[in-house]
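Hi P.,

Sorry for the delay on this. The queue was packed all week, but I finally got your sequence through. Input first:
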Amino acid sequence: MTSPSKAPALAPEILKTWLQEHQNLMVIDVRSAAEFDSLHIRGSYNVPLPLLSEHTDELAARLSSRVILVCQSGVRAEQARQRMASVGLDSAHVLTGGVPAFAAAGGDVVKGKDRWDLERQVRLAAGSLVILGLAGGRLLSPKVRMLSGAIGAGLTFSATTNTCAMGKALAAMPWNKAAEEPSRESAILRLPVQQPHEDAAA
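Then the structure:
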């Protein structure tokens, strides 16, 4: 079985132009609700990746080919694209550089409370655990160094499989929760149903 072909990555400047021209687009932000509250593209819809993965068929049924998937850097958006492609929606675009790149390009964004994005939290947690393992191995017991090895193995597995167990764990922490978390009813069933439209990249 071959993997779905990858849709062209979309530069922030192109998305900015499309939105200014009021083209028939649906921008889906797959970050956590807290990250979305902190900074998001005006007019985008928040459907966190775990929710999208759980209800891919329902979401795809409401969308046409004019879908832009965004996250913090592009990694989670690409995972979402692969999920969507698996149910037949294989023309969704992934925004290069994520929401920060769109903001840097002068795109229209909505800013809220400053928060560390999930990917930055993962780097901090992984780095801290490696330091803890090395220090503990020197001061307490050499066996503590296994913690550093486990983190290294976990990061390697994360890179090769394009998944992140630590990110999922951190996403469940209280400081990464919004006042109102998206649900199937609020994030998917309330999406406007798009009409079929020729892809702008065609």
